[in-house]
Each structure stands twice: as C-alpha cells, then as structure tokens.
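Hello forum,

I keep getting stuck at the same step: I have a sequence, I want structure tokens, and every attempt I make locally crashes halfway through. Rather than fight my setup again tonight, could one of you with a working pipeline run this one for me? It's a single chain of 294 residues.
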Amino acid sequence: MKNINWTYCQTKSNQILAGSAQALISSPWTQIDDAQSHFPGNYLISHNGLPLYIGESLDVKTRLKRQYGTSSTFYKNYQEKKSTFDIPQNLELPDFQMSFIQTRIGRKEVEEFGIVNLEIRLNKFQLGKKDKVILDVRHRIWEEIQDQTNAIIVDGAMLVSDEPEVVWYDAKLPSCPGLYYVTHPKNGLIYIGESTDIHARWKTHGTDTRFSALRRHIGTNILNLQLKTKSELGQATKAKTDKKMCFTDKEDRLVNKYLEHCKVRFLPTRFGRIELEEHLIRNLQPMLNRKSKI
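Reply #2:
Ran it on my machine without issues. Output:
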C-alpha cells in the first residue's frame, strides 16, 4: 500500500481526478427515481452518452431531484445554450440520463476537472479557468484515496496549523485553489473559507462587502452594523431583487479597520479543499462560519 497522505494527494491530483472521471462516466446510467442513496458525491447528466452537466453535493440524491426540474440551474443552462452546442433542441427532463459516484474527498475538484476534461457543455463556472490534461487513468488510485479519506483530511488539518499567520493586508496569497482561515487577537478564529482562487477571494474580502460573507458577518455579528440594500444607499441596481448586502462607506471603513488587526493563514490545495474546510469548521467552530458546524 502506498504512503497516501495529504501531500501525496496534492502531488498526484491529476491522476486521482482522472480516475474519478473514469469512475463517473463508467457508472451505470439511470433515472432520478432510481437514485436510492443519500451520500456526498458527484453526478453527471448526459443525453445519449454526451456529457452535458456535472455537479457535486453533500447529498447527491437531493441535489439531483432539484436539478431534474424546469427551474434548475442545469435545465436553465440547457434552454439558454442548446443552440450554441451540438445538442438536440427540444429535450424534456425525462430525456436526460444521469450517473453518480460517492465521493468522500475531492468533490469540488472532480467537478472542476470534469468540466474541462470531459468537455461538459452546460456548466458555466470554471470554463476556461483550467488547462486540459492528458488523462492518465488508473482507476484503483481513486478507490484507494476514497478508502483513506479520514486519515488524509486529518493530515491536511495538521499542515494548515503549521502554516505561518500573516497580517491581513500584508498577505500575499497565491492565485490558486486553496483554503484559508482568519484570526483576530480578541475574537480568536473567526472564519474558515475555500476558493478556486484564494488571492481573488482575499481581495474580495478586503474590499467588497456585497460579495463577501466574511465582511458582512464582521459588520453584523461583531460591529453591530445593519446591512442595507443598494437602493437604500441611493445606488442604482439592475438586479431583480435588491438584497440587504451593503454597508455605508463609513461602515465599510470600520470593517477595514477590523481586518487590519486580523491575520490570515492559507494552504494551496489541489485536492480535497472543501472536505478539509468542512472538517476544520466542524472541529474548530469559527465564530462567523454558518455551514458545516454540525
């Protein structure tokens, strides 16, 4: 048995993900009512063997039931883009088939890898963000990784804790997938997050309240500020719904001042970032995270 740990998974991520893609496309095609199990995993929606949409979920069956509806992201994308690709124009939901695999670690990366390397037509996110790789398919490596998920995640958590903390606005996060967590000298660990581009996410957290849950939670939960709509701030909006996601300029400066005292620790991650995030949130209970605390 190989010495499979967190570092091994990062080094061999392409080979592992090639195995996951092979497992997904070789799984039996079925209909939504035949999906019996509720488990974390990935799914592929196709028509006559043509891959059209790939996704991930903590509960594959529940997510697939949502996707098999006319208001789902998948079906909306089909209606919008069916004339762009070589896809039949008048398909109904029962005309699509799906396959799925249980994924204990690597759900996000399987989705991202599949979009590029299986040439998925109807996913919007990640298109053009990653290079296609030559598929070195070794099916067994995928199974070995899944069998050792718990040990791999624990090893990754130890590596995160060894990373140095950097003052928030002095940080130089790389433009790559990864995980990060944020501490404050008074409040301790306040937030853990993941992203396909941790530099871009750090920049958003430092400047743009509307697209940063971290900034909104700092403002409302720590600084006792009240979120406002763009309309309430006298700003034009083309959005169908004007949600309370903004602060005034003065309040945003207060959030910036709070972040000046924060530090960030980050770990570039090629495989397993969402599962590591879930593990750390569940075990460390950051002040401002909402998901994965149970």
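Residues 28 and 105 are 21 Å apart (CA to CA). If your local run keeps crashing, start a new thread with the error log.
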